[in-house]
Q: What sequence folds into this?
């Protein structure tokens, strides 16, 4: 059952999403080779709590951290650890907060300066997939229209692998609500998109095979061929005027512009 949100509820979700966006920007400001996943996770948790909110992922199905930190061949759900980042890493940072009874959810994949062109291209296309999907989040369309837009850009135009096992989702008082928002599918299929729908759209796109494996920790999802994977996510509300992106990557991108360690992803 899909729960459509009121305008007031959408504003509360926006508030949670804005804090997620600023938390990701704080992470960007400290990301450099030599820092660890554990350190950025601690910083993010402190940042969220300092704003009076609660980390949305910590304790969710017993997930042990504030951030999902997914490096290189890790697609999503990486548990932050004490290994130092190196100059050739890409790292997806996924963050959720719970505030005023509503969740916000967004993710950004970062590239250190030593990352090569082929992988930067993967990241740029994944971000473009996110925005192609968002464009289809309009009243009268169906979820499959979003899915198709993401899949066709990634698979048909670029021959990348689109992960099947993990999907975007409705979001509100629960972190994961109906409907599921797959990154593959058929135009005109799936639930109808109506005003008040709030969904997290999150393409997970692999350089090589679409196939993934789950780690022994029960969380970490990796590409089967161990090639890189990228992930970008926004929480989006559907309004009569069109899609309203509640999270905001501009905070992160303003930091990256001035970073001596991170490459811009266009
Ligand atoms: Mg997320
Ligand atoms: Mg999500």
A:
């Amino acid at each position: 059952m899909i729960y459509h949100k009121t305008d007031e509820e959408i504003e509360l979700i926006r508030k949670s999403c804005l804090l997620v966006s600023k938390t990701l920007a704080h992470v960007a400001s400290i990301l450099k080779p030599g820092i660890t996943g554990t350190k950025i996770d601690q910083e993010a948790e402190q940042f969220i709590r300092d704003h009076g909110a609660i980390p949305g992922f910590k304790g969710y199905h017993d997930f042990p951290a504030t951030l999902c930190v997914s490096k290189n061949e890790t697609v999503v759900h990486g548990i932050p650890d004490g290994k130092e980042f190196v100059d050739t890493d890409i790292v997806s940072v996924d963050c959720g907060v719970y505030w005023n009874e509503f969740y916000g959810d967004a993710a950004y994949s970062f590239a250190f300066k030593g990352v090569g062109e082929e992988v930067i291209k993967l990241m740029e296309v994944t971000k473009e997939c996110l925005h192609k999907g968002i464009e289809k989040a309009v009243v009268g369309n169906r979820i499959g229209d979003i899915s198709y837009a993401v899949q066709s850009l990634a698979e048909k135009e670029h021959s990348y692998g689109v992960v099947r096992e993990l999907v975007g989702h409705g979001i509100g008082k629960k972190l994961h609500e109906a409907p599921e928002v797959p990154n593959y599918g058929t135009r005109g299929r799936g639930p109808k998109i109506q005003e008040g729908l709030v969904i997290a759209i999150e393409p997970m796109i692999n350089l090589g095979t679409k196939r993934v494996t789950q780690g022994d920790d029960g969380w970490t999802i990796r590409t089967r061929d161990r090639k890189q994977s990228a992930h970008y996510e926004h929480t989006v509300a559907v309004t009569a005027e069109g899609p309203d992106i509640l999270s905001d990557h501009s905070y992160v991108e303003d930091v990256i512009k001035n970073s001596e360690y991170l490459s811009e992803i266009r």
Observations:
- The CA atoms of residues 119 and 145 lie 27 Å apart.
- The radius of gyration is 17 Å.
- DSSP finds five helices and 16 strands in the chain.
- The longest strand covers residues 102-112.
